[in-house]
Design brief:
The structure holds 2 protein chains of 2 kinds. Chain A is mainly alpha-helical. Chain A contains 12 helices and 2 strands; from the N terminus they run ααααααββαααααα. In chain A, helix 2 packs parallel to helix 5. The chains are: A mainly alpha, B alpha/beta.
């Protein structure tokens, strides 16, 4: 196998891992669409980082993205609480406005911003292995310089703060009465979602990011109901999605991100079939 | 306040709470003695849950101060347990009975510290105390209503607190579970601890509880069940249209204390 294939597959696999881990929380908290919102609304944050700092290096990008992600959540909650409109409505208003702002900024500062709005949606997984940097003499894809640190941050945060996230997500009231600051951890978790989204979407596109955030956890939650199992099986689900998707993409010579999304969709279909069969069998057992 | 405050499990002064522009609790002041089983009663929407949540800092209060054993609540968080009203739980959340009960020990979490085997032991003991052994690995939506209530009771027990706040612990349970819950509450009381429970069934207040607080936006009465739970106070809280077998037996104008259950 040549290094082009290896780097492309590795990038997709790692994006799948970080997105499916955070997807477990979004799906459990019934916030699947939040991944959608954040993946669009971080765009102006990234563009501003480009314009102000003239850089695409990972730390400022992740910082800009998480700041924008947190601002999205904060604005959404503000609209929901102050105007008493529904959560999904405020989400729709905020993320479309911010995304549009990002697109306008890109077109206005096109000469300074090396980012294509089309790429944001569809990703450029095919280009990952070509756009490389040298680190200690090794040539690696630039995408990995942002994906790997994100993976480390997300992994450590989820490990060390597992209980705090769990109690915030399941029972905010108990969390508050124990003095465990559920709001702080809510924003922390959403900051991690923003990091996952930004690390992934330049390579795989925001459509696939949403698929990777919601697809695995939703499918697994049909059959399993514990956070640990959701973690493990969602990661496996996304692994298989990335691998078969890349295979499909390379053999048919089409969009890799698109193929992975399709494979995730097919896998989801299989899981829903299993779920329906299982329920049907249970019903038959009861009738007998 | 006098030097007696430490004998008071909870002391509330001038508590007012608003949601948006609606006043839910108006200038409530109360003292609750240590070692008592206390019921909070009042009609739907009276602000019973709000009272509990305001004390625990779950909802903000407009005015008022509270102390638990004479201390500020922030110093006492490890000494209080909370059992939420069942409507507030997302039953589809991917957690099983053991996960939920273990959350009762999260008050001991330090920065970066995860739960220890000692905490797991405490969770198992609480599960056994409410008779849920064998159900540890059940997802909470696959439990009956009574088992769900007992799960949250076990979680409160695992908190190992001095004051237990419980929002309708008897909601949706059958007589057997009601008895299990009640004997657990008596057990808590025997250890010198205090239980403050929102309670709906007026018929069992006398039988189960020592003290009662009657509220409906304002504090209507508080004190010993036999001296406070009378038609005058209940009519003030519920209006004329409430139904309680005990009260019917008292007749419309009676202010006499309730007859003791045999
Ligand atoms: N989050 C909220 N936002 C706005 N209003 C609220 C909120 N929670 C409660 N209320 C209102 O405050 C009032 C008191 O509510 P609370 O839940 O304290 O009543 P309760 O006595 O516990 O009633 P129930 O017996 O039905 O549990 C009600 O009129 C309710 O509609
Ligand atoms: Mg209530």
């Amino acid at each position: 196998m040549d290094s082009y294939v290896v780097w492309t597959v590795l990038t997709c696999v790692l994006c799948g891992v970080i997105c499916s881990l955070l997807g477990v929380w979004l799906v459990s908290m019934r916030l699947s669409m939040l991944g959608d919102a954040i993946s669009h609304s971080v765009l102006p944050g990234l563009v501003l980082v480009f314009i102000v700092f003239q850089t695409r290096s990972s730390i400022p990008m992740l910082a800009g993205a998480s700041a924008m992600g947190l601002m999205t959540i904060w604005l959404m909650r503000l609209l929901t609480n102050k105007l008493r409109i529904k959560n999904d409505a405020s989400m729709g208003i905020i993320f479309t406005t911010l995304f549009a702002l990002g697109v306008v900024l890109i077109t206005r500062y096109a000469s300074q911003v090396d980012l294509d709005p089309g790429c944001v949606l569809y990703g450029s997984a095919e280009l990952v292995a070509i756009d490389t940097v040298y680190i200690n003499g090794y040539e690696i894809p630039r995408a990995l310089t942002i994906i790997v640190p994100s993976l480390v941050i997300i992994f450590l945060s989820l490990y060390f703060f597992h209980q705090r996230f769990l109690i915030m997500a399941f029972d905010k009231e108990l969390s508050k009465s124990l003095g465990l600051f559920p709001n702080l951890y809510y924003y922390f978790l959403m900051g991690l979602v923003a990091i996952a989204v930004v690390a992934s979407f330049e390579s795989v596109g925001s459509i696939l990011v949403i698929a990777m955030l919601t697809g695995p956890a939703t499918a697994i939650k049909l059959l399993y109901s514990s956070i640990d199992k959701l973690y493990i099986y969602s990661v496996l689900f996304s692994l298989s999605g990335s691998l078969f998707g890349c295979l499909l993409g390379f053999t048919t010579n089409t969009s890799i991100a698109g193929c992975i999304s399709i494979v995730i969709g097919i896998q989801f279909l299989i899981f829903s079939m299993i779920y329906l069969c299982k329920r049907h069998v249970q019903k038959l057992k009861i009738i007998q | 306040m006098n030097s007696n405050t430490s004998n008071l499990a909870l002391s509330i002064r001038h508590l007012s709470v608003m949601y948006d522009d609606k006043v839910v609790l108006k200038n409530v002041s109360l003292d609750i003695e240590k070692g008592k089983l206390l019921a909070i009663v009042g009609p739907n929407g009276a602000g019973k849950s709000t009272l509990v949540k305001a004390v625990l800092g779950i909802v903000p209060s407009v005015t008022g101060s509270f102390s638990i054993f004479g201390n500020h609540i922030d110093k006492m968080r490890k000494n209080i347990a909370y059992m939420p009203q069942r409507e507030n739980i997302d039953w589809d959340f991917p957690v099983n009975v053991f996960d939920v009960v273990l959350m009762g020990t999260y008050g001991d979490l330090g920065w970066f510290k995860r739960t220890s085997s000692l905490h797991k032991q405490r969770a198992m003991d609480s599960i056994r105390a409410v008779g849920l052994e064998g159900f540890e690995n059940r997802q909470i939506s696959e439990l009956s209503g009574g088992q769900q209530q007992r799960t949250f009771l076990a979680r409160a027990l695992a908190q190992n607190a001095d004051v237990y706040f419980m929002d309708e612990p008897f909601a949706g349970v059958d007589i057997a579970t009601e008895n299990t819950i009640m004997s657990t509450l008596y057990h808590i009381k025997k250890e010198g601890k205090t239980v403050i429970a929102v309670h709906h069934n007026l018929d069992t207040v006398q039988k189960y509880f020592d003290d009662v607080v009657i509220i409906n936006e304002n504090l209507i009465a508080s004190g010993d069940v036999s001296s406070v739970l009378n038609t005058t106070n209940l009519t003030k809280a519920y209006g004329k249209n409430f139904h309680s077998s005990y009260l019917k037996s008292l007749g419309p104008d009676s202010c006499a204390p309730f007859p003791s259950p045999s």
